[in-house]
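Please, structure for the following, as tokens.
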Amino acid sequence: MYAEYSLPLRREASLTSQIMFLFATTTDRFMQMVSNYLRRSRWGDTLLRKDESVSVVIPFFNRVSLLPRALNSVIGQTHQDLDIILVDDGSSEDCSEVLSSIQDDRVRLVRHEKNQGVSAARNSGIKAAQGHYISFLDSDDEFLPTKIEKQLGQLRSSVSGDVVSYCLSDVVSDADGKVTNFHDFSKEGDLLHYALMGSVEMSNGPGLCVLMNELLMTREQMISVGGFNESYRMHEDWEFLVRLAMRYRFVCMKEFLVRNHKHDLGHIANDFKGVPEVRYRMMEEHRQLFDNDIEARASFYSELAYFQGVCGERGKAVLSLAKCVACRPLNKDPYIKLGMLLTNRIQPPRTDL
């Protein structure tokens, strides 16, 4: 059976909790240094295999009917040293029937008293995690069977040591079971520029360069970047990825090991009304990074103008396009968007792909 416990609504951290958090972070950092040394030694492979426990955090808010697919895809992993954490972010739907069917001691349940958002749910999962490594899975998606095993092998064999792994993923329509899109960004090393871009070109269109479902890293790495910013109710994955890329390099397992699903039960990403405000905030909090990357700055204003146009903020959109042109005057994208804006041809992005 699964184990269950509740977490109270988060409050300002006391001095004692801050000291404990600092101690945990320092300890994890020391252990990472030892791990890196062992990785380079002749005993390393044998010793490091002893700590391959992986915590998988699955946050959910309603959409309980989709939960068994995600959960079973983790339980069925070829790598079995798992700590599986379900985080119920204040669901109004009854999930007791689904949870009562779980006969696996590795599964634990964390409940929020009320809905706090996906960032808070993931952070609660991080706090409860007991594994050396950590991974995330959205409740409507699934891991393919060898996802964790292959990424662990990649991290273990990495000569650079302190890196983060990600894999490729595809998108499947629940309506007909057909693959409708691929997320095949596969660059390695320093990805800060691509993270700042927010949306990069891939074979089947633009998207965030690395998705949360695709990541595998140590818990120490996650703690060192501060987890997820709970004040972001959208674009939290983009903001987190920028901070992660500021600190760590990436390796890519160039295989499709995650399946993302499109369905009619609602996606947070389908709500565009708050996007302009969140993007303004992203710029303010990471302004120096954008100032140092003119291409990312131009892309930021171009995308901001698009969403302002979608939300009916035409005047603000024109101003954002002017800022984009000031960054890269020979880039044709802002001129195309201006024409679409003036002829009322700006359409919301498709979410059925």
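The first strand starts at residue 3 and ends at 7. Residues 15-40 form the longest helix (26 residues).
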